[in-house]
Amino acid sequence: MSVTHPEDPLLQVHKVTRYYGDRVGCLDVSFDLWPGEVLAIVGESGSGKTTLLNCLSTRLAPTAGAIEYRMRDGSMRNLYQLTEAERRLLMRTDWGFVHQNAADGLRMNVSAGANVGERLMAVGQRHYGNIRSTADDWLGRVEIESDRIDDDPRSFSGGMRQRLQIARNLVTAPRLVFMDEPTGGLDVSVQARLLDLLRRLVADLGLSVVIVTHDLAVARLLSHRIMVMRHGNVIETGLTDQVLDDPREPYTQLLVSSILQV
Amino acid sequence: MNDTAQIFEQGEYNFAYLDEQTKRMIRRAILKGIAIPGYQVPFASREMPMPYGWGTGGVQVTAAILGQADCLKMIDQGSDDTTNAVSLRGFFEKTAGIRTTFETSEATIIQTRHRIPEKPLTEDQVLVFQVPIPEPLRFLEPRETETRKMHALEDYGLMHVKLYEDIAKNGHIATTYAYPVKVNDRYVMDPSPTPKFDNPKIDRMAALQLYGAGREKRIYAVPPYTKVKSLDFEDYPFEIQTFDKPCGLCGAENVYLDEVILDDRGGRMFVCSDSDYCEERRADGHLGPMAADPTMAGIGGHKPEETAQ
Predict the structure, then answer these.
(1) Which residue in chain B is spatially nearest to A148 when comparing CA positions?
(2) pLDDT tens profile B128-153
(3) Model ipTM?
(4) B236, A110: Cβ pair inside 8 Å?
(5) Residue B200 in contact with residue B13, Cβ under 8 Å?
């Protein structure tokens, strides 16, 4: 079990900068993330939020800056000084990554059960019956019928694929999950259901989440804390309700006021 | 001495076709492969005077290890006298002028396309496999950069995903050939498309096993007496095929059988896939139920599920 003290941050980000040639991806981003905390990164397209997420999740090396993560043994490690083997183990046990497009995060040509079971097999489980019952259990938790366990994700609807992707990520009980526009591309009613599910799972499992979204409603529903990005810079940060109810920066005010009120 | 051997003596070919530098290059790859059991060593595969898929990898390995005193056996699906085996045997008779044989125990080098002889091999023999696709993870992960990384990091969970899919879709592990194995507790290896019936023979085999893939430019090896474990699940252990009838010709049991269609009315028989083994047993007086006259009445119309499982 985790020996982390609840007051210790899980993830510490120091002045992370990423350039694409001369252009800025993100600039001097620093923050701490605590266990059980949900942080939303919001901003318009091209504001650098996905770049930042990719840097955090070791998918894209930053040009400058450091990212430290508290491992399960309690030690703080710089993510970019881990060995490839350690990084892979981290990514498939302690972390999850939920892609906007579920097809990027799933194996589309193997069954739903195998998709959920893959991480278990990767960490050495070799009992078919146990793997299958765990997969079945997780499909139930993300509201996918048991009789779909042997179907390919290709035959699933967009919302089901997204829920399957979430199950696949959560099966190893990760402590930190990255989400890139998890509700993007879904229609509104499916979005609402997915958000409900996510909110419940995050609360039940005590997950830390970094979620990237351009949808302020998603941020409002899921996150405790919010970071507003523009042109690669973090321009405002604070408690979600505080920032959304009483935005300080003109850009944030614009962003909040641009939400359609129906 | 036959015509082809005379051509060899006239000096039209270097011994065993390849030039000496090429053979040295291949031998280095083989030595590295033996040093790291199951690891796929890249090598500069040459174009051979036969199409890819005919065993260009195996032929290059055999050419590199062949000596004047060697006796070569060439088999194709267990049989000495089918097209692939006949052509490749002729190739080495012509280019190396060495002795060839049908008898397993007489051969020092056995090149095979997908079967391992039924008779146990000895420390004095080398078994050369022709391999079409050496990468066991290829159909699960198409990127070469990624599969290499997975081998390097021993990241083999994906292999079990395939076996999981087999069980989920068929109720049992339905992979019957090219069944993935773990060599020496380290590398996952594709034992070429041998039927999984032969997998137990690979484990701690006395003979050296060399695998050559010409098109994919890879050589790998299993040294003598190396542990080779077929992958499986705890609750779905590895099993080989079983046959509920003996060989129709020699009556052998616990051997791998081929189906032979006898007529257009569903008549069929099952005979040893290892033709040399079958002939030797018949010479020793073993007779199967159909040995005398395969076309005799009462043998037609077996349903396939009666015999093959």
Answers:
(1) B168
(2) 999 999 999 998 889 999 999 999 99
(3) 0.85
(4) no
(5) no
User: For chain B, which residues lie within 8 Å of any Cβ of chain A, measuring from their own Cβ?
Assistant: 149, 153, 155, 157-158, 160-162, 164-165, 167-169, 232-236
Asked if B86 contacts B103 with a C-beta cutoff of 8 angstroms, the reply is no
Q: Tell me chain A's radius of gyration from C-alpha atoms.
A: 18
Tokens representing B225 are 């007496």
Q: Cα–chain-centroid distance for residue A223?
A: 12
In 3D space, the residue among B40, B74, B38, B73 whose CA is nearest the CA of residue B55 turns out to be B74
The whole-angstrom distance between residue A142's C-alpha and the CA centroid of its chain comes to: 16
Q: Which of A174, A243, A202 is nearest to A37 (CA)?
A: A202
Beta carbons of B234 and A84 less than 8 Å apart: no
CA-CA distance, A150 to A77, in Å (whole number)?
A: 39
pTM: 0.83
Tokens of A7: 């007051």
CA dist., res. A226 & res. A218, Å (int): 11
Q: Smallest CA–CA separation between A126 and chain B, in Å? A: 5
Which H helix or E strand runs over A191? helix A188-205
- The first and second tokens of residue B104, run together, are 């397993």
Residues of A with CB under 8 A from a CB of B: 84-85, 88, 92, 107, 110-111, 113-114, 117-119, 121-123, 126-129, 131-132, 149-150
Residues 6+ apart with CB under 8 A from A224: A37, A38, A39, A239, A240
d(CA A123, CA B182): 16
Q: Please report, as a single letter, which amino acid is at residue B7.
A: I
- Angle at CA of residue B270, ends B265 and B273, nearest 5°: 135
Contact state of B165 with A149 under an 8 Å Cβ cutoff = no
Concerning whether B71 is annotated as a catalytic residue, the answer is no
Local mean pLDDT, 10-residue blocks, chain A (262 residues): 65 95 93 94 91 94 94 91 91 93 91 94 93 94 92 93 93 93 86 89 91 90 93 94 93 86 61
Residue of A83, A92, A116, A121 to mutate, testing the B interface (most B Cβ within 10 Å of its Cβ): A121
CB contact under 8 A, A121 and B167: no
